[in-house]
Amino acid sequence: MEFVKTNSVTVGYESFGDEDAEVILLISGLGAQMIRWTAPFCESLVAKGFRVIRFDNRDAGSSTHFTHSPAPDFSALASAIAAGRTPDVPYTLYDMVGDAIGLLDALQIDRAHVVGRSMGGMIAQLMSSEYPERILSLTSIMSSTGNPNLPSAAPDIMAMLTKRSPHPFEDEAGFLEHSLAFARRIASPGYPLDEEVHRILVLEEARRAYDPAAFGRQIGAIAATGDIRSRLARIVAPTLVVHGVDDPLIPLDCGRDTAISIPGAEFMAVNGMGHDLPSALYHTVADAIDRTARRQNPGKPAVSRAMSH
Predict the structure, then answer these.
(1) Could you tell me which of 232, 231, 247, 291 has the C-alpha nearest to residue 266?
(2) Does the global pTM surpass 0.70?
C-alpha cells in the first residue's frame, strides 16, 4: 500500500506488474474499496503484459474520508433533483475524476487504460470524455449514464442498499448477515456466490475503514453529477461496455445506453452475470479488457456481443 497527495486528498493505491508496462487503472464502485478488484483478477491482467493499479476512491478504504461532511439527506437530494436544482453535496463524480487523474500525474503516467465498475464505470467514462489525451482505452462494467429515463433497481434492493447495517465491531454476526443478504440479492445467478469469500472480504473492508456515512456521500456525488450522455459523445478511446444480463441493481438497459452514447463502443452482455464479478468470469472479462486495449480503430459502429460461460 502506497499513498499520494493530490486534488486536496490522500489516495491509497497498490500496483501490480512491471512498472514499465502499459497501465490499467481499476476504479471501484459505490461504497467499495479497491480490494474488490481482487489480487487474482489484477494478476490475470498482469499476465497479459500490463501494469495494474487499483486505488481507493475518496471516502473509501485508505483514502481521505470526508467525515466533516454529514451524509446527504436522501429525501432532500431527491427533491432537489426533481426541482432541477443541483443538490448540496460535498463533491461530485468530477472531483473523483480529478483524484484519478491526479494519481496518474503523481505516478508520472501520461496515458492509461481505464476500467471502472458500477459508479467507477461512470468515473472512467468521465475521465475518457474530459481527458481524452490521457486515455488509451475504456472499459465500463455494470455501469450507467445517469439517464433519468432508464429503469432503476427494484424497491427492495434500494431499501437494502440504504438501510443502515449493524456495526461490524459491535455485532459482527448481524453485520455479516446484512452484507450477505444484499450480496445474495445482486449476485450472478449463473455463478454461485462464495459466501465464505464474501465474509472474509467485507470484514477486511471493515478493518481497513468503517465509515457508513461515506456511502451516502458517494450516492450524493452520483446524484449531483446527473445525466452524462452529452459528455460521453466526445469519447474517442476504444471502448468496451460489459454488463450482466441478470443485473438487478443496474439493469441491462443501462449498459446498452452507455454503449449507444459512446461512439464506436462494443457492448458485451454476459449471460448469468448480476451486479458482481464472480471469479469464474475473471478470465472472460480480462480477455475482453485486453482485446479492447489492443483495438486500433475507434469510431466504428457499436458491436453487440452476448457471452455465456
Answers:
(1) 291
(2) yes
Q: Is residue 130's pLDDT more than 90?
A: yes
Q: Report the DSSP beta bridge partners of residue 11.
A: 4
Confidence of residue 296 (pLDDT cuts 50, 70, 90): low
The burial class, CB within 10 Å (0-12 / 13-18 / 19+), for 126 is buried
In SS3 terms, 32-63 reads as: CCHHHCCHHHHHHHHCCCCEEEEECCCCCCCC
- What SS3 string covers 57-102? CCCCCCCCCCCCCCCCCHHHHHHHHHCCCCCCCCCCHHHHHHHHHH
Q: Where are the beta strands (DSSP E) in 78-187?
A: 112-117, 135-141
Given this structure, which CATH class describes domain 2-151+212-307? alpha beta
Q: What tens digit of pLDDT does each residue of 173-184 get?
A: 999 999 999 999
Burial class (CB in 10 A: 0-12, 13-18, 19+), 203: middle
Please determine, for residue 309, whether its predicted confidence score (pLDDT) is greater than 60.
no
Phi, psi of 230 (to 5 degrees): -65, -30
Closest CA to 240 of 271, 270, 264: 264
Q: Nearest to residue 303, comparing CAs of 274, 254, 260?
A: 260
The pLDDT value given to residue 302: 43
Number of residues that this document lists for the chain: 309
Closest by CA to 78, choosing from 6, 158, 132, is 158
Task: Give the Cα separation of 262 and 235 in Å (integer).
Answer: 6
Give the HSE-up count for residue 295: Cα atoms under 13 Å, Cβ half-sphere. 23
Give the Cα-Cα-Cα angle 20, 21, 25 (nearest 5 degrees). 115
Domain extents for the chain? 2-151+212-307
For cell 475521465, name the residue. 127
Cα-based distances in Å from 170 to 7, 173, 177, 206, 254: 35, 9, 14, 12, 38
